[in-house]
């Protein structure tokens, strides 16, 4: 499935993005997980040419280090998407309390994206038998508090929160894509082709990175940089996100 996406801002942190035009198209790799269950006799997904192993099995030929990488990527991203869901939940609650229906609608639209991201990460976590973070309740409480407090402060503060979070997450998805490269393109020509779940995972990370950058765009367009104390707020939230990522890599 292909959709058209409008994007006005490509931050320098994510210079690996393929296009700098405002209007471009991209495929939704994550839809490989939204297809109906295949029949037992089928060898490929009913909606794509992907082999069925891409969405149902995990590679068995990885080194311990490569397995730890996959485990860490999925754990951090699942925790991050959980956090994003609770930030938007907090912002939506604040906008509802304040009666700001227009901002509530914008927040709800971005939240809908995050629900999809979390669903797909949960599929990946099950498929690859990755260990989820043990700090789920902590991330939920902190993320809701961040979303609600910035939302109650002002619409611009809520958008500054989104801008700061999505900047870090966009960079983080890019770092993960770089880390996956040796698994996708082994330097040894005699190495077997990568398990089909790995290029699919990389495509999903790219898709989600681009979604997060759209959220970043929306936040800037909606006045994030007009928030009082914008620089300080961005710095604090950005550092907080980086600390959370580091913790989730291990716990
Ligand atoms: Fe997300
Ligand atoms: Fe997002």
User: Treating each run of at least 4 consecutive H or I residues as one helix, how many helices?
Assistant: 7
Terminal Cα separation, in Å? 36 Å
From N to C, what is the helix and strand string?
Answer: EEHHHHHHH
Helical amount among residues, as a percent range? Answer: 55-70%
Oligomeric organization of the protein chains: single chain
Low-confidence stretches: 1-24
CATH class annotation: Mainly Alpha
The major β-sheet equals:
2 strands, antiparallel
| Structural class by SSE content | mainly alpha
Strand elements, count: 2
CATH architecture: Up-down Bundle
Enumerate the distinct ligands: fe (ii) ion
Number of individual domains: 1
Strand order of the largest sheet: 1-2
If you consult CATH, what is the topology?
A: Ferritin
Instruction: Bin the strand percentage.
Output: under 5%
Per-chain topology:
Blueprint: E1 2-6, E2 23-27, H1 53-56, H2 64-98, H3 101-127, H4 136-153, H5 155-184, H6 197-221, H7 230-250
Antiparallel strand pairs: 1-2
Helix pairs in contact: 2-3, 2-4, 2-5, 2-7, 3-6, 4-5, 5-6, 5-7
The structure holds fe (ii) ion (2 copies).
One fe (ii) ion is lined by residues 81, 84, 114, 117, 208, 212.
Account of the 3D structure:
With 251 residues, this protein is mainly alpha-helical. The chain has a single domain, classed as Up-down Bundle (Ferritin), CATH 1.20.1260. The protein is built from 7 helices and 2 strands. The chain has helices at 53-56, 64-98, 101-127, 136-153, 155-184, 197-221, 230-250, and strands at residues 2-6, 23-27. A two-stranded antiparallel ribbon has the order 1-2. The longest helix has 35 residues, at 64-98. The structure holds fe (ii) ion (2 copies). One fe (ii) ion (FE2) binds at residues 81, 84, 114, 117, 208, 212.
């Amino acid at each position: 499935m292909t959709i058209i996406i409008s994007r006005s801002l490509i931050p320098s942190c994510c210079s690996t993005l393929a296009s700098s035009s405002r209007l471009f198209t991209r495929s939704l790799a994550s839809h490989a997980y939204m297809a109906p269950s295949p029949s037992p006799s089928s060898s490929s997904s009913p909606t794509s040419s992907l082999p069925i192993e891409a969405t149902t099995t995990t590679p068995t030929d990885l080194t311990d280090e490569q397995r730890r990488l996959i485990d860490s990527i999925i754990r951090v991203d699942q925790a991050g998407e959980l956090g994003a869901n609770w930030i938007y939940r907090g912002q939506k609650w604040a906008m509802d309390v304040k009666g700001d229906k227009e901002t509530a609608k914008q927040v709800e639209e971005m939240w809908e994206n995050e629900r999809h991201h979390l669903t797909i990460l949960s599929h990946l976590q099950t498929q690859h038998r990755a260990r989820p973070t043990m700090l789920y309740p902590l991330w939920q409480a902190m993320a809701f508090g961040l979303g609600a407090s910035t939302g109650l402060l002002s619409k611009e503060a809520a958008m500054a929160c989104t801008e700061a979070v999505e900047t870090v997450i966009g960079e983080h998805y890019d770092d993960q894509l770089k880390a996956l490269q040796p698994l996708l393109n082994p330097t040894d020509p005699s190495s077997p082709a990568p398990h089909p779940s790995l290029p699919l995972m990389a495509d999903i990370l790219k898709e989600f990175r681009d979604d997060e950058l759209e959220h970043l765009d929306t936040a800037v367009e909606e006045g994030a940089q007009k928030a009082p104390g914008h620089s300080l707020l961005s710095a604090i939230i950005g550092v907080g996100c980086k600390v959370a990522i580091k913790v989730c890599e291990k716990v």
